[in-house]
Amino acid sequence: MSTGELVAIIVPIAVVVVLAVAVLWFVNRRRRLRERFGPEYERTVNRSDSRIAAERELRERELRHQELDIRPLPAEARQRYSQDWIQVQQEFVDRPGAAVQDADRLVTTLMRDRGYPTENYEQRLRDLSVEHGRTLEHYRAAHAVNTEAGRGEATTEELRGAMVHYRALFDALLDGGPERGGTERGGTERPR
């Protein structure tokens, strides 16, 4: 076999192998993003002009998240937050609107103490989506009701629902880690 014949055989095979590896890498990256962001993946894709742009945004969120100093709470802080949540729930009986506002403040304070920036609601959503994409809809729903309550437009049942939604995010943040297994970046189980 001549050199030209070998090249004619090897080059197409090499091209096919390179293309196969690229396709596998792309499919694996998409799967990883879907798993990591949960429902937030589809939400971001649906809001975006293209899947590629949405995936780029999600990767940018991951990069930003890596720059944050997200940390678990010490046991005594978790205990204090648990007690604060009990007080907010008790307040709901007599002052449901105020309790929802207090729940929002408590969740925001918990985010800040964990290391999340809290200045801007939309940025909070993006930052939380990296590790808490599955509870993000709870936060959105609770925040929407809290906004309605601020205008005096929320029913008691909507306020009750907001408390349930805030509780879902509160629990995820209080536990300290990703929803997918409750471990920190190092992969070790945290004590409760």
Characterize the structure shown.
With 192 residues, the protein is mainly alpha-helical. The chain has two domains: 3-67; 75-175, no CATH class. Helices cover 77% and strands 0% of the residues. It has eight helices and no strands. The model is unreliable at 178-192 (pLDDT under 50).
Note the gap between the termini: 69 Å
How do the SSEs run, as a string of H and E? HHHHHHHH
Task: Name the quaternary structure.
Answer: single chain
Name the beta content range. Answer: under 5%
Shape: elongated
Q: In which range does the helix fraction lie?
A: over 70%
Unreliable segments (pLDDT under 50, ≥5 consecutive)?
A: 178-192
- SS class: mainly alpha
Major beta sheet, specifics? none
Integer count of domains: 2
What Rg, in angstroms, do the CA atoms define?
A: 23 Å
Quantity of strands, as a count: 0
Mean pLDDT: 86
Number of helices: 8
Give the tags:
single chain; 192 residues; disordered C terminus
